[in-house]
Amino acid sequence: MSEHRSLPLLGGPPPERSDAARNREALLRAATDLVDHCGVEAVTMDAVAARAGVGKGTVYRRFESREGLMAALLNHSETAWQASVLSGPPPLGPGAPPMERLLAFGRSRIETNLKHGDLITAAGHSGARAYAAMSFAAMHVRYLLTQLGVHGDVPILATSLLAPLEIVILQQQTHIEQIPVDRIERAWDDLVRRVVSADAHPGAAGRR
Amino acid sequence: MSEHRSLPLLGGPPPERSDAARNREALLRAATDLVDHCGVEAVTMDAVAARAGVGKGTVYRRFESREGLMAALLNHSETAWQASVLSGPPPLGPGAPPMERLLAFGRSRIETNLKHGDLITAAGHSGARAYAAMSFAAMHVRYLLTQLGVHGDVPILATSLLAPLEIVILQQQTHIEQIPVDRIERAWDDLVRRVVSADAHPGAAGRR
DNA sequence: AGGCTAAACGGACCGCAGTCCGCTTTCTAT
DNA sequence: ATAGAAAGCGGACTGCGGTCCGTTTAGCCT
Questions:
Q1: Interface residues of chain B, partner chain A, Cβ below 8 Å
Q2: What is residue B96's three-state secondary structure?
Q3: Nearest to A160 by CA among A138, A184, A177
Q4: What is the pTM assigned to this prediction?
Q5: CATH for A67-202?
Q6: Residue A67: is its pLDDT beyond 70?
Q7: I want to staple B40 with a disulfide (CB 3.0 to 4.6 A). Which of A27, A161, B3, B118 is the partner?
Q8: Would you kindly state where each structural domain of chain B is located, as residue ranges?
């Protein structure tokens, strides 16, 4: 017997076959082109497959679903954004005081979310990505809130601060209620200051 | 000439023909049965039409789209809920102090949203209904915040407090992160107290 | 080189949302 | 009662997301 297929120890998921890798490239390129060129709604699975010169089944093999494909497109900019939060220049990146970082975080997130609005909507709640993106942001906000000396249920507080930055809320405000972006940003600043400052005045309206 | 068709003065939208009314009834009944019986995802337009004994086109004539149909189903419970906010017993209805009403509002909204989660998701952002529902809740929260002496951008503050009660956030928390509902409710209480109490300590962390 | 296997491929196929248009019913005015 | 017109109706049709399965191909082992 000869049982060793590439040291399965810690191999994680097996590597990708060369044709598969080539097709994933071609598909991402095709999808990107379609988005830039005709808008998100023109990105049908058939169109992407045809443009990449592969069969439809292949698209589904690489990216679970249409939402998965959109999530993959989003991945580039999302990763770049995370990097600039983790190691970019202040005040978004490390180096500024926590409150300034938090406010910069909010502004930045509002802007990126609005920029990729259609894509985010199309990506929906595509399991992995949505969860990863959310949990990164939530982790960061939890960290900053703790730095700021906030007590209480910090995980849920973080989620609550993040909720008004979700694309569905932002689009309601900008597209339907015609609220200018900088007003939304100022209002988030205010919200954050209110939440954080409560810990500077304990016993305000009931213990927590 | 004989031009008077039922006093168009203030007539609003013309009344419904009797067969149309009958069919709308039948369709709502069929849809409700399907939801109770097989779940929301079993409510296909063909199934509803067939069960009501009408053609598919008729479904679309009455309710713009699938989302519109779902919104119509939601309408019953939504209206009842609005009534209990406007004129039900305290603390949700009028009579209790504003803070108690606000906290009761949050708990009630969390529970109803979770109860009708699938339906709300299926109804999506179906123009009219979603907007009406949101704006009712927003109006109520704006009113209570004002009563509580909150200063600042109250409209957006209200939206920000409502955002964590949206179904997409609640389902993330309960279904994926396994957070128990009463913890979410307590966290919202805390959030509201923080936001409101900031006005009791002006100059907290920067003017607004 | 040659062959073996697992992975990848492609496109026919299915179900459902939404549209379209020729036919039928209701209502009203005579 | 009856005729005319507007509103309603129904189901065939289109387009898209997603699945399935017989065929092809890359990578490895001898």
A1: 99, 125, 131, 134, 152-153, 156-157, 159-160, 163-164, 166, 168-169, 172-173, 176, 179, 183-184, 186-188, 190-191, 193-198, 200-201, 204-206, 208
A2: strand
A3: A138
A4: 0.91
A5: 1.10.357
A6: yes
A7: B118
A8: 14-63, 67-202
